[in-house]
């Protein structure tokens, strides 16, 4: 009987020790998702409620590949975003990212996976800046493109210039990305013209810029 009691006590102490060694599971981050504009691919997440002192670890991989890779510069960070543009730059690929929270020294959350991400299909294209200058020759149109987009695909983008006449007719003029400037001639005198511009890349385009109007001389 005494031996049985001793064994029960030892087993109870062992269970306590094992339980004490199990790390506490933290609540995981939420809303893990990519936000991409002009192929700058930023992973965002929301911290668990009521806990602002956590550190976060981010990994990524190409869709179909088995191995997860650490994102350099996004290990043990306290911010709630991570730039994965360099890792996810191939427009032909699909990607995943994941993030978990940690509270030193041993507590951590489960990994949370992002939706599958394609820079080609999921990145939004920003509108260019439109500037107009009125001269005796006509309306000089200048377009300032998004800088990141020009670096990413300098030879693959162009612009649609929308010229709106007072009659309601809309004329579309294609403009090469390398020129960034054109002069609209043969316009009616003392007539109001309104213009918009749109960035166009393979398979997608930006929203139109805000409307700008001038009245010819």
Q: Residue ranges: pLDDT <50 for 5 or more in a row?
A: 4-11, 14-22
DSSP E strands, number = 17
Cα shape: elongated
Biggest sheet descriptor: 6 strands, mixed
Helical content class = 10-25%
Strand content: 35-45%
Q: If you average the pLDDT, what whole number results?
A: 87
Radius of gyration based on Cα positions: 29 Å
Could you say which structural class the secondary elements and strand pairing correspond to? mainly beta
Sequence of secondary-structure elements: HEEEEEEEEEHEEHEEEEEE
The helix tally amounts to 3
Cα-to-Cα separation, first versus last residue: 112 Å
Describe this structure in a few short sentences.
The protein is mainly β and 217 residues long.
Task: Explain how this protein is built.
There is one protein chain. The chain contains three helices and 17 strands. With 217 residues, the chain is mainly β. It has helices spanning 2-21, 119-122, 147-152; strands at residues 25-26, 30-37, 40-46, 55-62, 69-77, 81-83, 95-103, 107-109, 112-113, 129-134, 139-144, 158-164, 170-176, 181-184, 192-201, 204-205, 212-215. A hairpin with a 5-residue loop joins strand 12 and strand 13 (170-176). 14% of the residues lie in helices and 45% in strands. Mean pLDDT is 87; it is low at 4-11 and 14-22. The chain starts with a helix and ends with a strand.
